[in-house]
Amino acid sequence: MNTRNKWGNRVEFGVFVLPAVVCILLSAIIPFVMSMYYSMTKWNGVGKHIKFIGLKNFKELLTSDTNALKALIFTLEYTLLAVVLTNVIAIVLAVLMTKAFKLRGLYRVSFFVPYIISLIIIGFVWKFMFTKGFDVLYDATGWGIFQWSWLGNADLAFWSILFVGIWQSVGFYMMIYITGLQSVPGDLLEAASIDGCVGLNRFFRITLPLLMPSITVALFLSIANSLKVFDIIYTLTFGGPGGATNSITMDIYNEAFVNNRFGYATAKSLVFVVLILLITVIQVRFTKSREVEA
């Protein structure tokens, strides 16, 4: 009887687990293994002829691909600024949105709505704004800033992409920090106020350390999303002008679908995955070590 029950439990467990295992195999493990193979081939992504070339793609990437190096520098610069500015602005907004005032819910929704809109749509909307929209604003105000080439100048294009990226995502991280602020014990803040710890002093000494779990999550998501930035660049500049806004993901896209070097693009994507993994693991360990409990 016990043996029969044991086998019955195993079969029941297998029935429930098997669909999830199959989905993971089809969506993650098998494609990853296939990518490892394709990264060691010379293939255009369409033809039947696939030539195995070993580690030559990785050798080319690490020794002679200047475009990949430029894309890496741009991506790291963008990620650093986007992560810092997005999280700082999100924390400030979260603090403001936890205050009691009229229409607080409406303001929260207005900040969060851009995050649920497709980045492709947002990119095209802002591309229209940076061109036609700013021309109208210049005619109305006469301010020279609206006549600048925001997408045609290399430096301005970077800041344009950064602005749109922050504008689109800041509401999501604001909601994460609002949840974290609401979990801070009120009696602890009240006790700190009685002891004379108020204002910014109380925020940095009491609130911010207790907000570290939310900061860990927000930093993890913002770093991963910033490193993978693609949609905004694709719609606003397509990596231009002159490759000045060419990110790693954009570079991989060009190699695969413009230059028809699918094998080489796959090698780049695998290296990129390892880079994201290393950065996020270091970030999570660093911020986790600084979390405190109330």
UniProtKB/TrEMBL annotation:
It comes from the Bacteria. Residues 72-283 form the ABC transmembrane type-1 domain. The chain crosses the membrane at residues 12-34, 78-97, 109-129, 156-178, 203-224, 262-282. GO terms for biological process: transmembrane transport. CDD domains: TM_PBP2 (cd06261). It is found in: Cell membrane. It is a multi-pass membrane protein. InterPro entries: ABC_transporter_permease, MetI-like, MetI-like_sf. Coiled coil: none annotated. Keywords: Cell membrane, Membrane, Transmembrane, Transmembrane helix, Transport. The keyword Cell membrane applies. One of its GO terms (cellular component) is plasma membrane. The keyword Membrane applies. PANTHER family: ABC TRANSPORTER PERMEASE PROTEIN (PTHR30193), DIACETYLCHITOBIOSE UPTAKE SYSTEM PERMEASE PROTEIN NGCF (PTHR30193:SF41). Belongs to the binding-protein-dependent transport system permease family. This is Sugar ABC transporter permease.
